Amino acid sequence: MISDYLSRIADGLRATDGDLLQQIAQRIIATKKTSARIFTAGNGGSASTASHFCNDLIKGCRVDGRMGFLAQCLSDPMAVTTCLANDYGYDEIFRVQLQTHARRGDLLIVFSGSGNSPNVLKAAEFARARGMFVIGFGGRDGGKMKALCDLCLVAPTDSMEELEDLHLCYCHGLVDFIRGELADVWDIEVVNYPKPGGFRYALFDFDGTVSLLREGWQDVMIPYFCEILPGEEALVTEFVDMLTGKQTIFQCMRLAEEVEKRGGTPLDPYEYKAEYLRRLMARIDGRHAALKSGKAQPSDYIVPGAVDFLKGLRARGVKLYLASGTDEVDVRAEAELLGVSEYFDGGIHGAKDSVSTGASTMDVTKETVIRKMMEDNGISGGDLISFGDGYVEVQLVKDIGGYAVAVATDEERRKGVNAWKRKRLLSAHADVVVPDFSEPARLIAFMMGEC
């Protein structure tokens, strides 16, 4: 008998409308963009499913450390439901809660085996009148509830036990699918919240934070350095990674040190740098040419949302600075090519460590640029927010009391979070991780302490 029961569940799952289930998933995901709230409700076993699904929406759908959904189960609060049932009648326990908490654009998800529970019907009727979207999970013929739902998935069985099992399977299937989809949906991963009132100054890195013109530079530097240090890929990857955010010459200096440690005679670090840049430019020259000829648009090589974000910050009176480990002449040229130089009213700063300038590498470190910027403008650490994808710059800003936003863009795919970047930047104690700037208004409101 148990085997037969399980076979019927399997048959029910195979007969389920998968396309409709995916529509439901996409509607739930859409609440992320509007910060809409999700309410669930049901009676008896369906109340348990409604509560369980809320748990999974809040916790089970979390990706990395990002927030789950704003979900509330109307069946859960015992004191509230018994109060409403006692004073207004059991039929009103969900409707009155929605009247109190819900707003236009929110989502109601109801579970009912019969589809005819009066409290579920009243909740659905109110939700439609309030401008909410209604999703139902039913059974049998769907009952009266079906006509009150924008989307209703009816489990293909008349058995209450079977349809309740199917509903829970549907919920778990939704959670698994949604979690996968959310990997590429923009959101903020918060470690520390910003102070109220926001920031007056913002510091940006360039490559990988604003510009994608040099995407793949690690794929040039690491193999080249491994030619110099054969069999040391792990070591090379580690020090290239840890020095990201500093000028390129520092990585070349470390390469020279490692050659000397092994009894070799290293080249001058500037020679290593020149060869690396030659190889890098061979990779990216086509991108420059495409932009200059009009075959490509600046948006093709800018981190998603960056331009609107820069504009939004300027409109809020935030002064913007750019400090890069790339040679300053190249940073300025590429910022012009991408049309973003005008936004950095605080100045554009890059490496000046070429032999021709005679500059000392220690005189042009990013730390020096940041400290001079703060001294010249009377900036305290609490006034500064930074955006970057380098371990070093996150640490620098944290050391001076600033707020560090890690921009962990997956540069190759142009969407989602790069897991390697995220892990590295969190280890540097970043306050927040974002994949990009594709929700500029929300990010600005967040950093200004408004939400």
Provide structural commentary.
This protein is α/β, with parallel strands linked by helices. It folds into 2 domains: 181 residues, Rossmann fold (3-Layer(aba) Sandwich); 259 residues, HAD superfamily/HAD-like (Rossmann fold), CATH 3.40.50.1000. Helices cover 49% and strands 12% of the residues. The protein contains 17 helices and 12 strands. The chain has a 7-stranded mixed β-sheet, sandwiched between helices. Strands 2-1-3-4-5 form a 5-stranded parallel β-sheet, sandwiched between helices. Helix 16 links the parallel strand 11 and strand 12. Helix 2 crosses helix 7. It starts with a helix and ends with a helix. 43% of the residues are buried. About 2% of the residues have low confidence.
List its traits.
alpha/beta, Rossmann fold, 17 helices, 2 domains
SSE blueprint and pairings:
Blueprint: H1 2-14, H2 18-34, E1 38-41, H3 45-60, E2 71-73, H4 78-88, H5 93-101, E3 107-111, H6 118-130, E4 133-138, E5 151-154, H7 160-182, E6 189-190, E7 201-204, H8 218-228, H9 233-242, H10 248-261, H11 269-293, H12 306-315, E8 319-327, H13 328-338, E9 348-351, H14 366-377, E10 384-388, H15 391-399, E11 403-407, H16 419-427, E12 432-434, H17 440-447
Parallel strand pairs: 1-2, 1-3, 3-4, 4-5, 7-8, 7-10, 8-9, 10-11, 11-12
Antiparallel strand pairs: 6-12
What is the topology, as strand order, of the major beta sheet? 6-12-11-10-7-8-9
The secondary-structure element order is HHEHEHHEHEEHEEHHHHHEHEHEHEHEH
What's the β-strand tally?
12
Structural class by helix and strand composition:
alpha/beta
User: How much helicity do the residues have?
Assistant: 40-55%
Q: Report on the biggest sheet.
A: 7 strands, mixed
CATH superfamily of the largest domain: HAD superfamily/HAD-like
What is CATH's topology name of the largest domain? Rossmann fold
Q: What is the domain tally? A: 2
Any idea what the CATH architecture of the largest domain is? 3-Layer(aba) Sandwich
Uncertain residue segments: 355-364
Distinct helical segment count: 17
Query: What fraction strand?
Result: 5-15%
The best one-word shape is elongated
Q: What is the name of the CATH class of the largest domain?
A: Alpha Beta
Rg over CA atoms? 28 Å
**Average predicted local confidence, pLDDT:** 93
Question: End-to-end distance, in Å?
Answer: 54 Å
